[in-house]
Q: What sequence folds into this?
């Protein structure tokens, strides 16, 4: 599962303006021992979740037969993360070390092997490797969280998220509605990134065509990164008001309109970062701006706001 290719993972630090994402970084797995491919037990479970700050999804998960423990469900994190105290409690064997390169430094985190992570009665993935991280900033926003379920876990299933009912459904039938394509692999400086959910988005206040954002359950607001000069994040915004927030002078555009396929979302605030970050997309698209969202990892599409 972990190879010598470039992977994206979140490093559990915050931008100054809001919680839209933890500081983004690359995970380069070097000379790791062989890890068996993750095995998923497919299910049609309906699982209840707790919603923090109207966007953070917290679920109860059992790990290696112990728990349940509180985990953040995050489509923007490429890999599952557990805190050090949970790794010790589980006596999870350390299988190697990963080099994590953030926008400001390089650090090394340990990787632990987990026998199984399970949600509900039968939604489970076995033989998963997890990054060991303190997650201090995550726990400030979601107290009691012991880990993060990333796309290495979630990509084993098709998933319906219902923000109104606070329910998850794993491997249920695809609902009727427009199927918007997602890319599960990206590129950063010519190297592949995996475990991604990249989707084309239009900002109707800017005549710049479509841009590719990461569909992210861990983002509070849409966020744009100034990666390239021609990106949408540096173009003028019509019909919206911008103001500055935070020590980095981050701009927030209010009353923006977003379109994904034929689905239009009005009156949203968009954060425009002024400092470039190492990332394989133009920015982040919060899943929580939709009432319901169906993510088909097997089919490579999402259905936005499907009917009940």
A:
């Amino acid at each position: 599962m972990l190879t010598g290719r470039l992977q994206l993972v979140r490093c559990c630090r915050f931008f100054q303006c809001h919680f839209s994402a933890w500081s983004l970084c690359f995970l380069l797995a070097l000379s790791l021992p062989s890890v068996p491919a993750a095995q998923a037990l497919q299910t049609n479970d309906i699982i209840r979740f707790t919603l923090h700050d109207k966007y953070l999804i917290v679920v109860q998960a059992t790990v290696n037969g112990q728990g349940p423990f509180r985990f953040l469900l995050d489509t923007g994190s490429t890999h599952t993360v557990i805190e050090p105290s949970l790794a010790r409690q589980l006596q999870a064997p350390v299988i190697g070390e990963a080099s994590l390169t953030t926008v400001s430094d390089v650090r090394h985190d340990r990787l632990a092997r987990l026998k199984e992570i399970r949600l509900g009665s039968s939604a489970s993935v076995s033989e998963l490797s997890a990054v060991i991280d303190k997650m201090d900033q995550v726990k400030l926003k979601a107290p009691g969280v012991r880990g993060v379920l990333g796309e290495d876990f979630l990509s084993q299933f098709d998933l319906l998220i219902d923000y109104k009912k606070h329910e998850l459904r794993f491997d249920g039938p695809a609902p009727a509605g427009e199927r918007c394509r997602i890319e599960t692999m990206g590129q950063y400086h010519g190297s592949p990134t995996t475990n991604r959910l990249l989707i084309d988005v239009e900002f109707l206040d800017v005549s710049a065509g479509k841009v590719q954002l990461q569909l992210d359950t861990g983002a509070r607001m849409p966020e744009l990164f100034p990666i390239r000069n021609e990106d949408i994040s540096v173009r003028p915004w019509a019909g919206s008001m911008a103001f500055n927030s935070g020590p980095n002078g981050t701009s927030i555009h209010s009353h923006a309109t977003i379109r994904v396929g034929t689905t239009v979302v009005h009156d949203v605030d968009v954060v425009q970062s002024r400092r470039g970050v190492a990332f394989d997309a133009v920015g982040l698209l919060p899943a929580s701006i939709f009432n319901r969202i169906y993510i088909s990892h097997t089919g490579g599409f999402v259905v936005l706001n499907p009917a009940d």
Notes: The radius of gyration is 18 Å.
